[in-house]
Amino acid sequence: CVTMMKFGHRSVSPLSCQLIVLVLTLLFHIHKAQAGETKHADGKNTSTACRGSFECDRGVILPVWLPQNPSVGDKVARAIVYFVALIYMFLGMSIVADRFMASIEVITSQEKEITIKKSNGETMTTTVRIWNETVSNLTLMALGSSAPEILLSIIEICGHGFKAGDLGPSTIVGSAAFNMFVIIAICVYVVPEGETRKIKHLRVFFVTAAWSIFAYIWLYLILAVISPEVVEVWEGLLTFLFFPACVVQAWIADRKLLFYKYVQKRYRADKQRGIIIETEGDNPFPKLDIEMDGQVVNSHKEALDGMLPFMEGAKDQEDEARRDMARTLKDIKQKHPEKDIEQLIEMANYHVLVQQQKSRAFYRIQATRMMTGAGNILKKHAADQARKAVSMQEVRSEEDDHTVKVVFEPSHYQCFENCGSLVLTVVRKGGDLNHTVKVEFKTEDGTANAGSDYEFAEGTLVFKSGESQKEITVGIIDDDIFEEDEYFYVHLSNVRISWADGEMEPNESPPKASLGAAHMATVTIFDDDHAGIFTFEQEMTHVSESIGIMRVKVLRTSGARGKVIVPYKTMEGTAKAGEDYEEVTGKLEFLNDETVKMIEIKIIDDEEYEKNKTFFIELGEPVLVEVGQKQALMLSSRGGFSVSGSFHVHEAPLLTFTPLYYFKFGLNLKKKKITSDSNENRPVYTEGEEEQIAKMGCPSLGEQSRLEVVIEESYEFKSTVDKLIKKTNLALVVGSSSWREQFVSAVTVSAACDDDEDESGEERLPSCFDYIMHFLTVFWKVLFAFVPPTEYWNGWACFIVSISLIGVLTAVTGDLASHFGCTIGLQDSVIAVVFVALGTSIPDTFASKVAAIQDQYADASIGNVTGSNAVNVFLGIGLAWTIAAVYNASQGRDFRVKTGTLAFSVTLFTIFAFFCVAVLMYRRRPSIGGELGGPRTVKLFTSFLFVFLWFLYILLASLEAYCHIKGF
User: What are phi and psi of 214, to 5 degrees?
Assistant: First the structure.
């Protein structure tokens, strides 16, 4: 089987191996059945118990196929029909078990918030799962993965008058053997080359492994030693009570309570020989498992107190997780530079889902759906989330389209005081253009006053049918006074809507109309009598490192007369030029009436998760290089200025000295001598007044002439990382919210690609195998789509209905298996060990294979095998035998169980299981590194060894059943 796996590209190879075993066994036993008939006709003394019976008994549901003694040809035909029906029933059981496991995932994923109080009085709030991971694995998870075997044992006893049968118990033992040997062999082999997987919760593994082996030893004791071939009531009841005892002890080991808290965090064997057996991890708080912890506020104070350092230390590990995710995003971006940001985020999200720790139920569901053509649930979930986001945006836009919105567009206006008037635009958006919309407007003073700076205006705008835009005109008043920039407001109010004829419908409510967010316009009036004050918008600004080119506004306020040059340069802070940004030095040239200029600086993106570095942009002294005509005439009307006997008013040279320049270097400013009579009425200024007037008109720097730039991490990048490191509730991935969703999924075929394939992010088309499996199982998919969605009753509705359907299918499967065995002459114990146990374990095989490849640890792939084997005995056999023992005791008779075949199988399995666990523990030595994977030679040898143990178990159990070797 392992050799075949080397040539299998997909996970079909284990299935191929198992089908070959089934077919060979079938052909062998049909031939053996014919030989057995001949020997019996010849009158040889071979007991029926040893050679098998050809007389079929009525099943729990299925009747006997008459006649009882068909010809050889009819036997072959019946055997094929039963075999094909068994395979089809196994597929049906896998699909309904998928629904069952989805309900278990939803139930065990329920969370609650708890508040923990620190010693200093501070409180911390966190979210924990209600179900402890270990408890859920040994109860609901084990029940989900082994429900057919457990229910078969119970149904067989209840359906046959509370008498013991071979099919149920033998199926449980056979399934345990397959899980322990074949599944672990596959998991050892499929781990990628050069990697290993170790069991993380080793304490729990030791507990469940011990209980698993003890379970089969206990079976042998009650069958062959304590009360041979009789199961008494106390024996059955004690067997069943071992189930909660196993769960409680595993929980204690997981929580490190009682004596476990005194056990050191490492178990060590002979260190000289290099065998080191570690516990859950080397760190005191190994991983952020608090979500899976199930720890809630209870009476164990030390357990609660122990969470405080755990939670306080969790921040460092969360930061490390963020850094890892940041690196992952960068790697994906480098591999796929052609992808846009949404595609990159989707690929990263899928990567996170693949790497996220998952439960046994999830892997079982994933394996079943991939096997039956339902596709990769992780990829489908990512696609569904993207579609939902788009649809929500469309819904919001559709809702907005039905409402009329009236807004200014734009909502900010700027003008010079000499512009005369300003036109503001009002638009209507959305709704039906056939309606007439009315809205009132009114100006309101800010620092600008109506009557002195602008003309007051108010009125009503009427948008007639088909009109979507209106204008408001406001007059601007000019003066010759130096003043700061001023502003006023224009408000919209009382929006109303009517039909095209201007009247409202009397019997119908009018369509919705409202003011939009931009229902107020701000108008800024710039003074045109001053060269301007130059400043940044603010003292500090924050930019994302992913911005590329940052653009910084330099504003010219309080006037815009003349041509002014403003120098600027960058200065280092904690951010370094060439590493975090590119150094820039230059000059801004403001033309006459130009009020805004932009400085462009390139920011270097190194995609850090957290970043906080600063640098500065500094403006130099502005220089007036050309005086506007109005300013020159205004200065002339106030007396003009002479410099060294020359008069500079208009037609100034390119670098005419500004008054500020004169002040700086102490040049003499004198009022021009007046000789004309026409100038007699001119005001006479003193030298100080002249200087004040000149100073008021020259360009200068404002208060915010130095801008601090803080470079931060990319906001989009950071939020993406934050979202990705948050664990997705996998119940949302595997669960369903409506019957419609279930039926759509049932009739849809999807590609069943492995999670480690198709890294390009492109959607794959279904293969031929996907279509074949889909059409083979579409009946079951549609039938079980009637099961209530997992959203109902928090998954319990789906749980109850699913387990009921599993019980019905299990009863039919048990009858088919029994009739198939009697048709070809196989005993129930053999048919259970070879066929039924193998058929019910196929989904677990695929689940364990995927878990071994994807999971960081070996717990999900093999750690649950031992626990599941123990639960199968205590719950499956223990509950069934308790019911039968109580019933028979009430009837005054013993509940008898034949010792022979079952006792031999149990003993054989126990010996092999001891050997298997010992090999796994030996593989933890440093030269190998873990239970799974490791050097190629070692993992091949381990896989061959475990598969050989399984074949040897099947061979010896079959030989004993047919009396070729002596049992007990």
Answer: -60, -35
Q: What is the pLDDT of residues 854-901, one digit of tens each?
A: 788 888 777 668 778 888 888 888 899 999 999 999 988 988 888 767
User: Which helix (H) or strand (E) is 463 found in, with range?
Assistant: strand 458-463
Q: Nearest Cα to 292, choosing from 469, 116, 108? A: 108
The pLDDT tens digits of the residues spanning 322-363 come to 666 666 666 666 666 666 655 666 666 666 666 666 666 667
Beta strands at 412-416 and 520-526: parallel, antiparallel or unpaired: parallel
With beta carbons less than 8 A apart as the criterion, state whether 18 and 842 touch: yes
Contact 90, 71 (CB under 8 A): no
Q: Can you tell me the distance from the alpha carbon of 624 to that of 656, in angstroms, rounded to the nearest whole number?
A: 8
**Are residues 895 and 230 in contact, defined by beta-carbon separation less than 8 angstroms?**
yes
pLDDT, tens digit (0-9, with 9 covering 90-100), for 33-78:
444 443 333 343 444 456 555 677 788 888 888 887 888 888 889 8
CA distance 942 to 360: 24
Which residues have CB under 8 Å from 222's CB, separation 6+? 231, 235, 239
Are the C-beta atoms of 185 and 844 separated by less than 8 Å? no
Cα dihedral across residues 534, 536, 537, 539: positive or negative: negative
Q: Vertex 475, ends 474 and 476: CA angle to 5°?
A: 120
Cα 102–Cα 108–Cα 113 angle in degrees, nearest 5: 135
- For the chain, give the mean pLDDT: 73
Instruction: Identify the helix (H) or strand (E) that includes residue 553.
Output: strand 549-557
Long-range pairs of 759-765 with CB within 8 A, sequence gap ≥ 24 = 759/335, 760/336, 761/336, 761/339, 761/343, 761/346, 761/347, 761/350, 763/379, 763/383
8 A C-beta contact, residue 515 and residue 406 = yes
CA 619, CA 579: separation in Å to the nearest integer? 23
Q: Which helix (H) or strand (E) holds 78?
A: helix 72-108
Report whether 170 contacts 902 (CB < 8 A): yes
Q: How far is CA 420 from each of CA 453, 456, 476, 528, rounded to the nearest angstrom?
A: 11, 14, 5, 12
678 burial (CB, 10 Å; 0-12 / 13-18 / 19+) is exposed
Q: What angle do CA 922, 923, 926 make, to 5 degrees?
A: 100
Asked if residue 251 lies in contact with residue 260, where contact means CB atoms within 8 angstroms, the answer is no
More confident residue, 750 or 282: 750
How far apart are alpha carbons 75 and 874 in whole angstroms?
A: 38
Query: Tens digit of pLDDT for each residue in 211-259?
Result: 888 988 898 888 888 888 888 999 999 999 999 998 888 888 887 776 5
In this prediction, residues 499-515 reach a mean pLDDT of 60
Tokens of 661: 């320049």
- SS3 state of residue 598: strand
Global confidence as pTM: 0.58
Domains of the chain with CATH codes: 2-59+72-294+303-375+720-961 (no CATH), 404-526 (2.60.40.2030), 533-622+703-713 (2.60.40.2030), 626-698 (no CATH)
Q: Do the Cβ atoms of 196 and 205 come closer than 8 Å?
A: no
Quote the CA–CA distance of 172 and 110 in Å, as a whole number: 31
- CB of 301 within 8 A of CB of 117? no
Q: Are 732 and 565 in contact (CB under 8 A)?
A: no
Q: How many CB atoms lie within 10 A of CB 481?
A: 10
Q: How far apart, in whole angstroms, are the C-alpha atoms of residue 579 and residue 536?
A: 25
Instruction: Name the token pair of 398.
Output: 């559709």
Instruction: Residue 126: name the closest of 112, 142, 137 by CA.
Output: 112
How far out from the chain centre does Cα 585 lie? 47
Q: Which residue, among 882, 729, 754, 871, has the nearest Cα to 145 in the 3D structure? A: 871
